[in-house]
Amino acid sequence: MTDLPARRVVNDIGKSEYVVTDTGLKVVGDLAARGCSVVTIARALGMGRDAFRAVRGRQPEVEDALEQGRAVEHDVLVGNLRAAADEGNIVANIFLLKARHQYREGEAIEANLSVNVNTGGVLVVPAKQSVEDFLRDAEKRDVTPPAAQDR
To answer: Which domain of life is it from (predicted)?
Structure first.
């Protein structure tokens, strides 16, 4: 007889509930790795979404199989995106910067600056240098404008 992915059993208080078998754990992991929804995975096990949620709560190995499958999918997707970025796909590069390195559009860079109101001035940061590095280097040299030095 073939091992079913899940079966109903009677628990200690006489209530019927699903139990996911070893075959079912493989099904959960494989489907999660392919990006299937929880509803699809539950149906493959022969149960509904709510019953699958209950099984995940009772059987930690089911939740583990789901998480491991999703991790496989994640790694494949990141690998595909990375390959596209390496081939020069600008959108893939932008997405990876935003998703993995917290780049945000339209947000001001945090910097503690004080500008001398007597000299006015504009802070110009070299394009290949971060604001933080520029400010750190500025502390090491005299950045007073020449007109202010002559006063």
So the answer is: Bacteria
